[in-house]
Amino acid sequence: MAKIIGIIVVFACVLGGFVLSGGKFMALVHPYEIMIIGGAALGAFLQANPGSMFKQVFKKSLSMFSSRFTHLYYLDVLKLLYEILNKSRREGMMAIEADIEDPAASPIFSKYPGILKDQRMTAFICDYLRIMSSGNMAPHELEGLFDMEIASLKAELEHPSHSVAKIADGLPAMGIVAAVLGIVITMSILADASNAQIGEKVGSALVGTFLGILASYGFFGPLAASLEHDAKEEVNVYEAIKAGLVASASGMPPSLAVEFSRKVLYPAHRPSFTELEQAMRGG
Q1: CB 80 within 8 A of CB 252
Q2: Helix, strand or coil, per DSSP, at residue 238
Q3: Nearest to 254 by CA among 96, 134, 80, 124
Q4: In the chain, how long is the greatest CA-to-CA distance?
Q5: What global pTM score does this model have?
Q6: Torsion of CA 59, 268, 220, 21, to 10 degrees
């Protein structure tokens, strides 16, 4: 909701201030300027990134208005870890073999469809439970493997935000390109044009610069920052999972291992100790 309000505020203040100062809104409407700037930015994006990145950025941009990393989501992650670790401690690691081989059919994973829907996170949890069930890896070795995978995962998750940030940095220059082309058109009609026509053409050219700067700092820059924040929150969940599983591999009981996970989560939506304790008892 805050992001939608932010977009409205940008539009309202910039356009409202222009109109209230005596400007005419239609003076800013130049579709061909938008085509030049938007087309150049899109072309640069496609050149600079893998083919799948456009779809990934588009999908993440649509989901930026409602983050899945909420208080309840964090609580579900902790409850899932507790249930699977508690079962393995009571019945042995072999007892969770069916759960980790086919999470979709697992009674434990099925309780948490939000996590099960995230195939990468589900596979991440199951892979490390398989490694732990082998019993041949020391806790510090397991932690080292976690660190290496999370580092590569972090780089992958942050790629969309970096790609959008580079486009945001280039949009003012794209606006200048549109403005220069507008000045070229103005120069070509100087011999026959009136002062009013020349002024209109120069104004149209300056709109290109305006649109490039506004798009960069008003929309694409904030979008890149939002995507980066989303990536950091997702990495934080993986770090929490790592903390709980390493603690369990070190011999900690499930309730204490999950507390290690809870402490790693960002404080903004982190469940309290009492909430987690009640949730584990309820599970």
Answers
A1: no
A2: helix
A3: 80
A4: 91
A5: 0.86
A6: 130
Six token digits for residue 250: 């070190």
Query: How open is the CA angle 201-186-29, to the nearest 5 degrees?
Result: 25
Helix (H, G, I), strand (E, B) or coil at 69: coil
What is the C-alpha to C-alpha distance for residues 193 and 187, in angstroms, rounded to an integer?
A: 10
Evaluate whether 115 touches 77 at the Cβ level (below 8 Å): yes
Enter the DSSP assignment of 220.
Answer: I
What is the SS3 assignment for 253?
Answer: coil
Q: Name the DSSP letter for residue 25.
A: G
In tens, the pLDDT along 125-151 reads 999 999 888 777 788 998 999 999 999
pLDDT in tens, 45-93: 999 988 888 888 888 888 777 778 888 999 999 999 999 999 988 888 7
Counting other chains too, the contacts that 209-212 makes at CB distance below 8 Å and 24 or more residues apart are 209/172, 209/175, 209/176, 209/178, 209/179, 210/28, 210/175, 211/33, 211/34, 211/37, 211/175, 211/178, 212/37, 212/171, 212/172, 212/173, 212/174, 212/175, 212/176, 212/178
User: Could you give the residue ranges of the DSSP H alpha helices within 119-219?
Assistant: 119-134, 139-188, 195-215
Length of the chain: 283
Helices 254-264/273-282 angle, 10° precision: 140
| CB contact burial 84-114 (16+ within 10 A = b; e otherwise) | bbbbbbeeebeebeebbeebeebebbeebee
